[in-house]
Amino acid sequence: MLSKFIPALAIAGAASARIVGLAAPKVIAVNETFTVTLLTENYIQSVKDLVAAFALSPRADADGFIGTEYLGSFYLGPDKSNVLTNITFEVTAPATNVGQYLNGVVTSLYGASNGATTIQWSVPITYGDEVSTEQVRSIEGNNVCSSSTPTDPGSNTTTTAPPSTDPTSPPATGNCFPTSTQTLIQSSLVYANALIDSIVQSNNQTGRQNLGQLNGFLGDVSAAVGVGRGGESCNNPPSPSWPPLSPGDSQVRAISILRNVQDTLQAEQGAILQCNDAQAKSIQCQVLRLVDNLDSYYS
């Protein structure tokens, strides 16, 4: 469903942002200070960014270990969360010029359930006589939050973590989702909000269009997380029959359901960022059941 897009006005109005990449000089110099940059983009919900850390390594990221040539860590917190301007840090290259990659990690909390994620990026660098103005960047980060007691590439000891029995914890292996899944959820959130606005304004024509778009994106999310486009594997019970409500009460009930849909989708984003397959499927089934109930009050 790549032909679908998030309305520009809806995105422009969002006052939230997330960190999506890492940039650094292509060439660094021994004992010279240089700037490391975290790249940001607009996002559908607020994100609580906690901390960033950087190191140099002779290899790219290795299961959550960023390298032995530690450059420093930095608190992010409220002042450096949800900002659309890129975030910069000053670090100093060590005298040992063994690093061929600069690795960075950022730990954040997503969604209403504050799902923890640690994303790692790597960019290739070389040592030279002076720090270059040319930059290298990485946008394709890896979620290493689910690396449970990984093997340290600098150690001769391998430690195997016992399997988790907590159904809410992320799996030890990265059983992740299609890269478009988060975008599809963002689009669902946008159209849920647009539908709420249509209901408030009693604009049924636009409302029906927004409802169709919402159902389309939710079908794509369902397919992405593996419950079937129509929720075939959810086994949701039929929507209960309720006594008819007045138009005003139906409007209030429909908006309440859509608010619950938004909250549940945000929780699903946290599960996806943690690569928690079972939880993402369960949450998506909850979303589909809520939308089924919406039909009783708005169509």
Automatic annotation (TrEMBL):
Keywords: Signal. Coiled coil: none annotated. It comes from the Eukaryota. Residues 141-176 are annotated as: Disordered. The keyword Signal applies. Residues 146-163 have a biased composition (Low complexity). The keyword Calcium does not apply. Residues 1-17 form the signal peptide. It holds the Pfam family Nis1. This is Signal peptide-containing protein.
